[in-house]
Amino acid sequence: MEPKRVLAINPGSTSTKIGVFVDEKPILVETLRHDPKQIAGFKELFDQYPFRKQVILDTLDREGMNLNRLDAVVARGGLLRPIPGGTYRVNQAMIDDLRSGEYGVHASNLGAIIAEEIAGRLGIPAFIVDPVVVDEMEPIARISGIPQIERKSIFHALNQKAVARRIAKKMGKRYEDVNVIVVHMGGGITVGAHRHGRVIDVNNGLNGEGPFSPERAGTIPVGDLVALSFSGKYFSGEIMRMIVGRGGLMGYLGTSDAREVEKMIAEGDEKAKLIYEAMAYQVAKEIGSCSTVLYGKLDGIILTGGLAYSEYFIHLIRERIDWIAPVYVVPGENELQALVEGALRVIRGEEEAKIYPFVEKGAEMVHGGKL
Ligand SMILES: Nc1ncnc2c1ncn2[C@@H]1O[C@H](COP(=O)(O)OP(=O)(O)OP(=O)(O)O)[C@@H](O)[C@H]1O
Ligand SMILES: CCCC(=O)O
Questions:
Q1: For residues 225 and 240, what is the distance between their CA atoms, to the nearest angstrom?
Q2: ipTM confidence score
């Protein structure tokens, strides 16, 4: 088969990562850093769109990349309606939802729109793969405890599924044939129970659920949070920032950088040690909880994300969970590679591109609305 060339785009809050791949092999990978002042100068997220697109095009031009040789463009999808995992062809319904911000505003909302703009002009397809709103939760996992609130699936779907596929392959199996718990440990931490290729339960990592993380609070005693919210001491924006951005390590220790915390511990800081160990304790506890979701029938537990580079942090988790199942460590995340792999599965005909918003065959419900 002819080699396939794919451009991958992953917009973050202050940078845009891009990669050009020939099949699975990267020939160009760049992190285009944007001046935070320039980003702050745009009133709405979508005002950044022409600027970010031009920076990408200028970089590709400077690096001598011939766009006409591309077979597809793939981007990290943003905050969309809840959808099952997979590769989706970018379409107007998706662009409308991303533009409206109805499901949330996040830099990754720009990805599909830039991808479609570049691909459209070249007459090639644009895709997104496993956005953070991937929702494959079982009905039982959606029940929160009060009827007014349903649990939501918002997690590091792209990296979780990519490493689960990689480790399944290492086991000589297909992702669709294994049961694994995947723990992504980045700025946020998400712990997913993957049953035969579907993430049937996972903590909402964006918004106050699960273990605390370098910059997020995770689950907190709810009555106390309500009391704090109505104490008159804080604005709602301040409370939200305690939950996301200034929670977790950042809240207790003033830094979200685990390397700095480990330095504090090495210098004898007892508080830093307690908080860091508590983060590992909460991660281990969440893994234990997910193992019950899978009735203990597990092929492995996979630890990934930036924190998985830390041998000390991995040790703190491993000593509590290695009796449950074999533990695999895949440090960092390789989202560009995961995006390209998702696009290649479709281009090579190994998988069909899904249509957004997703309709389950024979189902009465559309994910995100009634049929
Ligand atoms: N080599 C390392 N050793 C120890 N900790 C590390 C290392 N590299 C990154 N980390 C820590 O991992 C945490 C998450 O960093 P990372 O940059 O991977 O997350 P992110 O990409 O910002 O967030 P997310 O993965 O949630 O999107 C930080 O606390 C960082 O200090
Ligand atoms: C949990 C959703 C992904 C992120 O942290 O940005």
A1: 11
A2: 0.97
Residues 357/366, Cβ–Cβ less than 8 Å: yes
Q: Where are the domains of the chain?
A: 5-135+335-370, 157-331
**Structure tokens, 14:** 């202050």
CA–CA separation, 131 and 245 (whole Å)? 21
- 152 in ligand 2 pocket by Cβ < 6 Å? no
Query: What is the topology classification, in CATH, of domain 5-135+335-370?
Result: Nucleotidyltransferase; domain 5 (3.30.420)
Atom nearest to 205 CA in ligand 2: 1
Tens of pLDDT, residues 5-50? 999 999 987 889 999 999 999 999 999 988 878 888 898 888 999 9
For 157-331, give the CATH class. Answer: alpha beta
Tell me how far the alpha carbon of residue 323 lies from the centroid of ligand 2, in angstroms. Answer: 29
- Beta carbons within 8 Å of 324's beta carbon, 6+ residues apart: 287, 288, 291, 296, 298, 301
